[in-house]
Q: What sequence folds into this?
């Protein structure tokens, strides 16, 4: 039994709405191509864990919800409830006959007896809310407002419908940006498993279902949007201010003027977007954009990228009865508005610049417009077809493997265990008690036989949390925190994993969803997550919406004790290590070392050592990931093989290049590992050279990295010297590499390979290299 695809779920849900016959779903669109099943992956039985033959009630609705917000003050904590069922707890009408707006908003806004969530008084990181929407139709007449740390989750077995009333009082159904926070600081919000229906709103109105003006560590997935065909409506927009998100995925749009219309922003990855009868599928303005595994039918324009400033990449996508597949701006022979079109099926005008078609029909290999580095030199390509082979271990049916986040809806409640309810193995999740011993016993006891649910809370682990083969773990998104503490993680020269997925050579299943990883103390020897396991097939080992935060939030001495020198705050050894024996699919991961305090104004002078160290060889997929503010490097590919990356974002620590005497590898110079950069290419006092590498790629082969955003926000005159260092690689391909404030984009063996591209400054001042080919 496979995971319910959003298209099927949407058809069922829309078919149940009065007056909405889902006509286009009855016209054969569901059989769109053979790759849909593989893109979503399959839910398969593993050992004693068996999927139900009949569709069971969604487990999340009935499992015990005994979580907490561990770091609220005592008076608020006792009266605060994380999980909210909008029907049972707040009386929301789900028949579609009565207005449900007020009840839905109460479910979102309710806080403690002393303050509601709308006030912002409960803090950024201490007011998590899981707002559960049972199946049914909810009539909405005014804008619903989300707040930080909120996840809205519908029943994936029968998607609930948010139906806009004909008398809707404003121009958007749901606003994702908390008014207490700027959009660039709007982290930790999400919505999934919901249908938005705007068909009762006048088709001529400028009306949107969802405004998603947010930034990293947010999620929008498994949503459907039903809009009147030919209307002026929009599915998802970002109208408020500037924003910096990572990924939107697994979405279906019917009708309307735009499926997605984003007039601003830095970077986006759009994965598995389906549009039917929508005039423009995606219109986006941003520094760089990736569109992957998407399907557009009956549209004037599939992708309007005419406002994309640095690079637009389109992979593994389809257009049918589309006037223009990609609408692009004139690059005028310089490094901006670069295009990478790869493995696209479209029988008509595939790329149009202005009014001029420049590419017709299918693209089998890579069609590239922009600067391309190959054979030791950079040349500008006005539009050239390349035929670089893709690494076979990364493909399913000829496409890069992707997988929808599992909801485990095919399993009944008997297949789950709440980690806080296991008799004889007490787990507190209170932010104080060391839970590691009993957590490890529970994970070992139920590996392969139960799906482990971690309700909201902060689970202190003073020893490594070991994820054995056969594990499936799911949390309460922004409320479920695994936090390291103790002497085990104190030695910078002998790093120890806080969370370890399998041992070297293990093969099996290990899936983690909706978890938050952090530390409760300054731990120089803490490697936050280490993955050793591989699966028998892609997606067996996977992480979805697993986020990191080092400092910046309540419950950690990194936040309270790091106001002085960075040398006194070697907070963690590193965040992510994919070892040589691993094979993992990772989607939507933000590896953030805090540059500011989310819950106050304490200085955050934090020196986390490393972002992601990738030594994996068997097949690795990184989609919508980011590593920010690490001292030595952000992504480090060492002897890696068979790696796909779709949209990587990095930022150097803001204090590097600005504060005196903060030259890398300081303050880690006395605890460097063999895989660390030594900065031998930099003079001892060269401030702008001795800054964190954005990417290091050494002795690797068969790497394909698409749409990177490497950013150096140096708040003083000058630019960082180097972004990416390469050496000894075979068949390494980077497409759409975008940098901000760097003198050199690629270096190797101490030599400059690709310097800043003259004339490349777009609206976001980025340099962009459309293609880099090595080996």
A:
């Amino acid at each position: 039994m496979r995971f319910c695809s959003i298209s099927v779920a949407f058809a069922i849900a829309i078919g149940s709405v009065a007056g909405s016959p889902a006509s286009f779903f009855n016209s054969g669109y569901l059989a769109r191509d053979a790759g849909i099943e593989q893109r979503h992956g399959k839910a398969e039985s593993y050992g004693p864990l068996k999927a139900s033959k009949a569709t069971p009630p969604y487990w999340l609705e009935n499992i015990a919800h005994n979580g907490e917000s561990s770091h609220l003050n005592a008076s608020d904590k006792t009266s605060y409830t994380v999980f909210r069922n909008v029907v049972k707890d707040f009386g929301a009408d789900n028949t579609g006959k009565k207005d449900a707006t007020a009840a839905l908003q109460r479910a979102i806004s309710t806080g403690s007896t002393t303050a509601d969530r709308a006030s912002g008084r409960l803090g950024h990181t201490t007011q998590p809310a899981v707002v559960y929407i049972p199946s049914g139709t909810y009539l909405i007449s005014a804008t619903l407002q989300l707040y930080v740390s909120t996840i809205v989750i519908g029943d994936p077995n029968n998607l609930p419908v948010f139906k806009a009333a004909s008398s809707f009082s404003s121009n958007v159904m749901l606003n994702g940006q908390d008014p207490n926070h700027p959009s660039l600081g709007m982290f930790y919000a999400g919505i999934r498993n919901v249908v938005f229906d705007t068909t009762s709103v006048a088709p001529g109105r400028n009306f949107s279902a969802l405004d998603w003006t947010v930034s990293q560590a947010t999620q929008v997935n498994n949503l459907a949007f039903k809009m009147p065909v030919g209307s002026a409506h929009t599915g998802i927009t970002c109208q408020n201010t500037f924003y910096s998100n990572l990924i939107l995925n697994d979405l279906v749009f019917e009708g309307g003027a735009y499926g997605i219309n984003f007039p601003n922003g830095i970077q986006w990855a759009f994965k598995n977007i389906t549009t039917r009868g929508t005039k423009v599928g995606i219109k986006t303005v941003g520094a760089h954009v990736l569109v992957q595994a998407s399907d557009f039918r009956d549209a004037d324009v599939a992708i309007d990228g005419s406002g994309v400033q640095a690079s637009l990449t389109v992979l593994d996508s389809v257009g049918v009865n589309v006037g223009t597949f990609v609408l692009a701006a004139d690059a005028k022979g310089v490094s901006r508005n670069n295009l990478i079109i790869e493995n696209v099926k479209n029988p008509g005008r595939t790329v149009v610049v202005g009014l001029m078609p420049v590419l017709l029909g299918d693209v089998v290999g890579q069609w590239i417009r922009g600067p391309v580095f190959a054979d030791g030199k950079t040349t500008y390509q006005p539009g050239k077809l390349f035929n670089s082979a893709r690494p076979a271990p990364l493909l399913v049916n000829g496409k890069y493997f992707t997988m929808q986040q599992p909801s485990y809806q095919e399993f009944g409640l008997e297949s789950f265990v709440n980690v806080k309810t296991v008799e004889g193995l007490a787990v507190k999740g209170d932010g104080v008690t060391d839970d590691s011993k009993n957590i490890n016993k529970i994970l070992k006891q139920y590996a392969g036989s139960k799906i482990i649910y971690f309700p909201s809370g902060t689970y202190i682990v003073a020893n490594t949390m070991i994820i054995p083969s056969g594990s499936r773990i799911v949390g309460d998104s922004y409320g479920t925190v695994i936090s390291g503490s103790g002497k085990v993680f104190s030695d910078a020269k002998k790093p120890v994993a806080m969370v370890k997925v399998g041992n070297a050579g293990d093969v099996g299943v290990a899936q983690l969803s909706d978890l938050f990883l952090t530390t409760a103390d300054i731990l120089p020897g803490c490697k936050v997550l280490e993955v050793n396991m591989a699966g028998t097939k892609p997606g067996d080992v996977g992480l979805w919406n697993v986020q990191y935060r080092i400092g910046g939030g309540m419950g950690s001495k990194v936040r309270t004790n790091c106001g002085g020198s960075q040398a006194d705050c070697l907070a963690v050894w590193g965040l992510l290590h994919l070892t040589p024996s691993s094979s993992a699919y990772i989607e939507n991961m933000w590896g953030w070392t805090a540059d500011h305090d989310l819950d106050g104004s304490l200085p955050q002078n934090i020196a986390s050592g490393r972002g992601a160290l990738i030594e994996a060889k068997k097949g690795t997929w990184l989609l919508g990931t980011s590593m920010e503010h690490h001292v030595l490097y952000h992504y480090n590919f060492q002897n890696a093989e068979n790696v796909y990356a779709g949209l990587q974002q990095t930022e150097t620590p803001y204090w590097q290049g600005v504060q005196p005497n903060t030259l890398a590898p300081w303050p880690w110079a006395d605890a460097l590992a063999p895989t660390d950069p030594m900065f031998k290419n930099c003079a001892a006092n060269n401030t702008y050279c001795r800054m964190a590498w954005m990417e290091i790629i050494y002795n690797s082969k068969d790497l394909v990295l698409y749409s990177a955003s490497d950013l150096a926000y140096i708040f003083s005159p000058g630019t960082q010297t180097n972004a990416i260092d390469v050496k000894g690689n075979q068949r390494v391909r980077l497409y759409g590499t975008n940098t901000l404030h760097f003198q050199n984009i690629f270096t190797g063996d101490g030599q400059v390979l690709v310097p800043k591209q003259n004339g490349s400054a777009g609206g976001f001042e980025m340099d962009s290299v459309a293609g880099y080919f090595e080996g």
Observations:
- The domain at 434-711 is CATH 2.160.20.10 (Pectate Lyase C-like).
- The CA atoms of residues 689 and 721 lie 5 Å apart.
- The first helix runs from residue 6 to 15.
